[in-house]
Structure formats: structure tokens, C-alpha cells
Design goal:
It is a single chain. The protein is of the alpha/beta class and 308 residues long. It contains twelve helices and nine strands. It has three domains: 93 residues, Transcription Regulator spoIIAA (2-Layer Sandwich); 120 residues, Transcription Regulator spoIIAA; 69 residues, no CATH class. It has a four-stranded parallel beta sheet with strand order 6-7-8-9. Strands 1-4-5 form a three-stranded parallel beta sheet, with helices on one face. The chain has a two-stranded antiparallel ribbon with strand order 2-3. The longest helix has 15 residues. The radius of gyration is 21 Å and the shape is globular.
């Protein structure tokens, strides 16, 4: 237990591991197999033990998509029976749109209503092409139900720069956000697509800063601004570092060490992030960002020696 209050001051209870959906951009379908679930009895017993040891007043049911647990209803009922009188909150950090249940949500809100978070990722046509088969109409219907059931806000995650993305896809995203914001308050968060090792998109390229600026501008110009809409963009340079580190080889070890020696620490926090350190170290080592960010065409990739 830390001596000070921390950001995620809650019990994280892993209820299942892996994901069987197979979205092309995601590592989970390849790296965490087979899908494994814990029994409700096991989870409730663990939750009681951790609560006794910590006193934390929120339990987060952790997985790639908690609604995929085959016994999620039984688990929620059991957790509520044990923790309702203790005023302990039960929350879902990740739920797929097509597995979300208002019946379960209505049970959870009896303790404390938490925000809903979903990840449409992109417009409907491209969403289908990358293996995520959720329709806009399903999302709109869900948001209408959320409003009817007293929810105040929904957070949505999107990606910029997915393979095959065109201007039409960005306009579809803007239209969807505009439509949803007429129903409920929307917080939309945009990250730059990072091609992940072991995923279907592991060889795809990471978009340039110019492309990112163009795509961001389309969204900013076409999303209707009101007090019911808030959009944020993850810094492009941070995603760039994530991309070349995730796809890097042994030549990056010296770069990482040099950046650290020059003061590069805790760089996931905006106030400590210094992109120029990475640029300088790459130049010093005679390396190019393009080597790691472009489409990869070689037969053997650095991570192919890893058996996932």
C-alpha cells in the first residue's frame, strides 16, 4: 500500500485474460491465448481478501472486455451481495459496445454510477474492414438507452492513421460524434495508430506528422462544438516514440540508455516528455526514424524470435 494517494486508488481484479474478437490492430488475440476466465466464486473470494487487506472502496473488474466473461451476471450479483453494505463501488474499465448490458449497469449504479467508455476506433466502414463489427446504429441505440437510464456522459476512443483510412472515414467519425452529442455529453479521445508486433497490422506504417496534422484538422473543422462535446488528441510525438520502441531492434538499446542519461525519465507524463532527446540520440547513433516507422517489408522481424 502506498503512503500517498495514487491516481488509480482501487482494487484491480483480473476476471479473465485474452480476447477472442481478433481485431486486426490488437495484440491481445495473438499474445494472450487461449482466452481464460476465473470463476465467480474464486473472484469474490479474492475480492474479499484484497478488500480486507487494503480498505480500498472501489473494485475494478479488469479484462480486455469485461462483458465477455461468460458468467458476468453471476459475478456482479455475487459482488453486490458481498459489498453493497460496505459501500464499495464496482466498475467496468473496459466494455465492448455489443456486450454492454444495461441490466448489469443498472445494478452497478445502485452503488455509484460510473462513466461509460467504449472504443468505436473509426468510422463504420473502416471499422468493419479492420475486424471490429460494431455498427453506428448499435452505438446510437446504446447511447439513447444510456440517456434514458440516467447516464450523463460517454467517453469514446478513436484512432487516427489506421491502414486504409481515407478522408471519408474521418468525416464519418465527425458525423457520429455530432449525432451522439445531440443525445448525451460526449468525450472523444483520439490516439495515433501504432502498428503492434504480433498483430495483423505489425508491418503497417506509422503515419507522418504532416498526415497527422491533416487528419486532425479535418476532425476539428467538422466536429460540432458545444458544451456537450469535448475532444482531446494524444500527442503525436508520444505515439511516435511508442511506435519505434514497440517495433525496435537491438540498435535502439543505446538510444534508450542515452536518453535516460540525458534526463529522459517518466516521459509518459506530458511535463516530462522531451521528444528532442530522442531525435538527438537517433542522429548521434546514425539511425533513422523511417527504419522503424515505415512499412516493414523484410521477411524476418526483430520480434519473430518471441514465441507468444
Amino acid at each position: 500500500m502506498p503512503l500517498t494517494e495514487i491516481v488509480h486508488d482501487r482494487i484491480s481484479l483480473e476476471i479473465m485474460r485474452g480476447c477472442g474478437q481478433g481485431c486486426f490492430f490488437c495484440q491481445a488475440g495473438s499474445c494472450w491465448t487461449p482466452v481464460r476466465v476465473k470463476s465467480p466464486a474464486n473472484l469474490i473470494d479474492t475480492a474479499l481478501q484484497v478488500y480486507k487487506n487494503t480498505g480500498d472502496e472501489e473494485i475494478s473488474l479488469l479484462s480486455f472486455s469485461s462483458g465477455d466473461h461468460p458468467h458476468i451476471g453471476e459475478l456482479i450479483d455475487g459482488m453486490l451481495a458481498k459489498f453493497r453494505e460496505k459501500k464499495v463501488r464496482i466498475s467496468f474499465p473496459a466494455v465492448r459496445i455489443d456486450t454492454f448490458s444495461f441490466e448489469l449497469a443498472s445494478k452497478l449504479k445502485g452503488i455509484k454510477k460510473t462513466g461509460l467508455t467504449f472504443a468505436p476506433e473509426t468510422g463504420e466502414n473502416l471499422r468493419t474492414a479492420i475486424g471490429k463489427k460494431i455498427k453506428d446504429s448499435e452505438l446510437i441505440e446504446l447511447v439513447l438507452k444510456a440517456k434514458k437510464n440516467g447516464w450523463k456522459q460517454i467517453k469514446l476512443y478513436f484512432m487516427l492513421g489506421l491502414p486504409g483510412e481515407e478522408e471519408k472515414d474521418l468525416l464519418d467519425v465527425a458525423r457520429l460524434i455530432n449525432e451522439l452529442s445531440r443525445i448525451i455529453t460526449i468525450k472523444a479521445s483520439f490516439n495515433t495508430f501504432v502498428p503492434k508486433p504480433h498483430s495483423r497490422f505489425e508491418r503497417k506504417r506509422f503515419i507522418s506528422a504532416e498526415e497527422y496534422g491533416y487528419k486532425k484538422r479535418i476532425l476539428v473543422e467538422n466536429i460540432r462544438y458545444s458544451r456537450f462535446t469535448k475532444i482531446t488528441f494524444h500527442p503525436y510525438e508520444m505515439s511516435c516514440v511508442e511506435a519505434f520502441l514497440s517495433r525496435g531492434d537491438e540498435n535502439l538499446s543505446g538510444v534508450i540508455l542515452d536518453v535516460w542519461e540525458k534526463g529522459g525519465k517518466m516521459e509518459n507524463w506530458n511535463e516530462y516528455f522531451n521528444f528532442s532527446l530522442w531525435q538527438e540520440r537517433f542522429y548521434k547513433k546514425n539511425l533513422s526514424f523511417d527504419t522503424y516507422l515505415s512499412e516493414l517489408k523484410q521477411d524476418y522481424l526483430p520480434w519473430h524470435l518471441i514465441k507468444v
